[in-house]
Amino acid sequence: MQTSSRFNRTHNTSLKMVGLLASFFVLQGCASIEEVPAWERGYLAKTGMQWEAFAREGRLAGHVYTSKEASSGGSKAAGGGCGCN
Question: Which of 30, 31, 37, 55 is deepest in the core (most CB within 10 A)?
């Protein structure tokens, strides 16, 4: 019985060590952030790479949504729901 207890302890310790090493390597992958080169910044500034391709239309759609729902701030900010801005 004592042999199996010792085996479980060493097995648990080795599993913890493997988990710790795996976590370390995953975090190391997140730490290697590079600066975007100047010649690639133009691609990131294009309309297709933006969160909202057409900001004016997005604001208009949000205004229409809040007008129809009779509440303010339903999608982005907190509102009271009274319909006043």
Answer: 55
